[in-house]
Amino acid sequence: MKLLLDTDIGSDIDDAICLAYLLAKPECELLGVTTVTGEPEKRAMLASAICNAAGRDVPIFPGAPRPLLIEPRQPLAPQAAALDRWLHATDFATGHAIGFLRDTIRRYPGEITLLAIGPMTNVALLFALDPEIPQMLKALYMMIGSFGRGKGAGNVRLEWNALNDPHATAIVYNARPPIHRSVGLDVTLQVQMDAAEVRQRFQAPLLRPVLDMAEVWFRAQPLVTFHDPLAAASIFDAQICTYDRGRVDVELASARLAGLTHFTEEAAGPHEVAATVDAERFFQEYFTVTAGGYR
Predict the structure, then answer these.
(1) pLDDT per position as a tens digit, 144-184
(2) What stretches of the chain adopt beta strand conformation (E)?
(3) In whole angstroms, what is the distance from residue 134 CA to residue 127 CA?
């Protein structure tokens, strides 16, 4: 499966965990990575370090460093502190991320799944630049939002990717790719692992640089939530998540609630949001792919 990844790797550790999975997944043909939000060049270096550990030469392009209209909430990439221990590229072509996405999707119409696991700035710019692109995708998968589904029913909250660029989030939900799926916070919070278990399980060569980056994350948070890896794994295993169909509207009128995702069930709605997750099946998939097994 041809796939493009748009990521804010370098803030929460789950982006790095997700990239390692995609690099190890035999069915995934990773065509490129674009980075988004503050210090996108350092984020590109982090992606390069993981690709290098996997022995893969993947095109990587730094993207938009700031949201479309609001002040940035995520100006730094703190996990760059781990870069001195891992070989990585340092020279990237800047100003080409959106063009790279556009050209790649146009080269393979109907074949590419776009996985967006950061704020939606790059994706919104892409869709605004070339309105035909959404329909040229095979599918759009996103880790974004909170929809009050499953065990999180009734517990809708602001989610980091959505609120970091609410106007971009709205643009992306107004697009109409053939498949438009969101894996939200209400479902991803059901796949967590504490720092001790992460240290125990992340011993495979591919996961060693990820663990070094995780140690930066653990200084403030002794827990990993597998938000982004869940969105990735759900692309390849349709039984990990179930989805509800409807329409997602994004709050823009209220500055305090900007980026809140409102979900309304509709049988013919354009959006699908994750409703349940088989956590055991997810972890089995993740560690079988990246580390050779899960017990």
Answers:
(1) 999 987 665 556 689 999 999 999 999 999 999 999 999 99
(2) 2-7, 29-35, 60-62, 112-116, 139-143, 180-183, 192-194, 223-225, 241-250, 261-265, 271-277
(3) 7
